[in-house]
Amino acid sequence: MADHGNDTPDRTAGSGTRSGASSQDGPAAPALSRRRLLGTAGAAGAAGLAVGASGGVLGTAMAAGEVPAALATLGSTAAAFHGRHQSGITTPLQARGHLLAFDLAPGAGRRQAAALMRRWSRTAAELMAGHAPADDTGVALDAGPSSLTVTFGFGRTFFERTSLTAQRPVALKALPDFTSDELDRERSNGDLWVQIGADDALVAFHALRALHKDAGDAARLRWQMNGFNRTPGATSRPMTARNLMGQIDGTRNPKPEESDFDRRIFVPQGGEPAWMAGGSYAVVRRIRMLLDDWEKEPVGRQEQVIGRRKSNGAPLSGGTETTPMDLEKTDADGLPVIPANAHARIASPETNGGAAMLRRPFSYHDGFRDDGSPDAGLLFVCWQTDPLKGFIPVQRKLDRGDALSRFIRHEASGLYAVPGGCEPGEYVGQRLLEA
């Protein structure tokens, strides 16, 4: 854990409209689609959709032959699928998320992978625009896009399976082993990686189901992890939020308005390999938090471990959350105010040659373990131009002396090359797979 113009989709689905049930005493209700419900978005106001005793807004409207109530603002917001970068990287934190890895099926190669990426890109574009894809289940028929994002990446083994090892980026080296790792290999790595985020749990599941069905015989699910964040509007911080330890997470994230943001996060035009232009590298780690042990520590001790105030995220050297840490400040005894082994100090760009990552995690809770402790923690996702200059050197330092290490366990890991976005009529990864 480190401190830290929309385009129109390339096609719409012919099955995006569904017929309503007819009443015995009147005409059939008007046809509905996810897109249609966005026409008067916002009219429902901050209170959202009211649910009636006869099955909710959708059921009532269909029975009465009326147009359903408009979506609340939360449901009407949409992220762009097409563009220079894929969505889900600089998108503000989303309330619900699914992380998945697939392996190509035995016998599947470059041709099958290209067909799969074409299907996935088409489905993602439709869902993110609020359209129902072909053969839709109707799960989210009455929902808007809810800021749905879908992000695709390629693992190191993908290039071997597709006979494209000559195109594999140098930066996509296998992550080294760290002494604090207790990795489950079956829940790590994978040929293909998918990140789904949305501000509505049903919309996120709908995308998960659609993409899993699209995989067909071409790829098999390797692992899946489900996460959550604060609901938009529940916090004033769109890219920093409290994790399950109660600490504000992501404070030192690079900011898009900073002049060197793109250089730190995205592969430049003309970079190597050429097909990664506009892309980024995602490090994914499942980090279990030993919450029973952590919560026994007094707040003052927790703050010493992190190096920041729990109440507002300010560094122990003073100021507010965004105040730069004063790593030279000492107390009356001449000791550093921010301890030498504090997480924030060790992970700081100032102590790592300027190395920085864009942290965009999800929290998770998978029930309780046999000993009664919560199986909960952080689905850590960080983005950078080159993990050899970002995540790896920072994690090496954390591995050697981070005070937080005794309260966490790294249980799964992966590194993925996430290509740039695509234009209408194209699919993600096309520059690689059709080179």
Distinctive features:
single chain; 21% helix; alpha+beta; four-stranded antiparallel β-sheet; five-stranded antiparallel β-sheet; 435 residues; 18% strand; globular
> What does the largest sheet look like?
5 strands, antiparallel
Structural class: alpha+beta
Mean pLDDT: 86
Radius of gyration: 23 Å
Topology:
Blueprint: H1 56-64, H2 73-76, E1 96-104, H3 110-128, E2 149-154, H4 156-161, E3 192-198, H5 201-215, E4 219-228, E5 241-242, E6 248-249, H6 261-265, E7 280-289, H7 291-296, H8 299-306, H9 343-347, E8 358-359, E9 362-368, E10 374-384, H10 391-401, E11 408-418, H11 430-433
Antiparallel strand pairs: 1-3, 1-4, 2-3, 5-6, 7-10, 7-11, 8-10, 9-10
Helix pairs in contact: 3-5
Architecture overview:
- Strand 9 and strand 10 (374-384) form a beta hairpin.
- Helix 3 runs antiparallel to helix 5 (201-215).
- By secondary structure, the chain is α+β, with helices and mostly antiparallel strands.
- It has helices at residues 56-64, 73-76, 110-128, 156-161, 201-215, 261-265, 291-296, 299-306, 343-347, 391-401, 430-433, and strands spanning 96-104, 149-154, 192-198, 219-228, 241-242, 248-249, 280-289, 358-359, 362-368, 374-384, 408-418.
- The strands form 3 sheets. Strands 7, 8, 9, 10 and 11 form a 5-stranded antiparallel sheet that branches. The protein has a 4-stranded antiparallel sheet with strand order 2-3-1-4.
- The chain has 11 helices and 11 strands.
- The model is unreliable at 4-64 (pLDDT under 50).
